[in-house]
Design a protein that fits this description.
Elements (H helix, E strand, L loop, with lengths): L1 H21 L5 E6 L4 E6 L1 H47 L34
Antiparallel strand pairs: 1-2
Length: about 120
């Protein structure tokens, strides 16, 4: 994929150089109105096109890079939180595993008699 990207950038650079060279003829007047008196510069058409193309591309490129950077930070933050949660759950002991086997779950006094056991009636004697 890197080779395709490199080829596209080389083709774009060649296109820009050819465009500037073909339009590098007679300079044109660029007027900038800052006050009552217009200020002007005499530039070739290719240079004018290149300058204004860069004025349009650079802010868009900077915005793209900032969004990509902030989304990358957000993704890394989420990945780190998932990793830390997974590690903390992995090292957290489970309550059923640590219970000793020799201690009964309920004490013997609290167990109710089963209906099949014979019951003695001491009041009849």
């Amino acid at each position: 994929m890197q080779i395709v990207r490199t080829i596209l950038w080389v083709l774009l650079a060649i296109f820009i150089v050819v465009f500037v060279m073909l339009n590098y003829g007679e300079p044109q007047r660029v007027r900038i109105w800052l006050s009552e008196d217009p200020v002007g510069f005499d530039w070739p058409v290719g240079i004018i096109a290149l300058v204004f193309w860069l004025l349009g591309v650079i802010p868009t490129w900077l915005y793209h890079r900032s969004v990509k950077w902030s989304l990358g930070r957000r993704i890394r933050s989420l990945e780190n939180s998932i990793k830390s949660n997974a590690l903390s759950q992995r090292h957290q002991p489970d309550a059923t595993v640590d219970k000793p086997a020799d201690i009964p779950a309920k004490p013997a006094e609290t167990l109710a008699p089963t209906p099949s056991s014979p019951q003695k009636d001491n009041t009849a004697e």
